[in-house]
Amino acid sequence: MPQVKLVYLARRSLDLAADEFPARWRRHGELAMSLRNWDSTIAGYTQCDNIGDPWDGVAPGTGETWSDHEGVGSIWFHDEGAVDEFVSHPDFPQLLMDEWAAFDDQVANTSVLVTEEVLKERPGSAVRLFHFLSAAPGVSAAEFEERWRLHAIDTMRSADLTRPILSYVHNHPIAAAAADEALGDTVAMGLRVSGIAELGFASKVDLRSYLSHSRRAAVRPALAEFADPAKTVTIATGEVTMCNRVRPEGRAPAPS
Question: Which of 6, 22, 87, 107 would you label with 71, given CA atoms 20 to 30 Å apart?
Fold first, then answer.
């Protein structure tokens, strides 16, 4: 069964300097993990810090416009029922209050609830590349899904291109009605995307190797045939594991 997770774009509070945000984000994460129903509902948690342009200005880029968001957060739930259980718990308002000190907006407004489709997975990712994708004008949700799937198959055919990739995940947004049901009346997800591509690498060097590969010159134009480049948010990040992920075989017992 696909695992449900919440993915959000993080942008720091204007009261925080750029170099203050990572530590403040960690404290926010520690508060989340201290909530009484964390273990019974949450299966994993990462905070991925924006590392900026992976070329560091010393080599020509490859056409991407790199996002200035501070990072990407991912929270895996044991199952869909755990989403409502987590956000409806009496402790949850503590987390909402703390968001105003850490972020420039509530997390719900920059979040999307997804199921993940793992296309490739090997351990060791330290760097993650995210593409937040929106369908091109005139492309329906069903057509986007099909063309995105075929695009992934075509990309994976090149063993040389994909060799540096340790993990490759397609994150599929849960339909608004199903997401609202899972979330109850507590929060509503505000980020509207058609899909999130997530690629893991062992290092920034491996990410650069992938981005600069000659075979990838055809990947971006092919993607633009069904995903709108003007609405794509691309961010390269360094992964910080806050809570080791567990697979959805079963949920932890609820605390007594």
Answer: 87
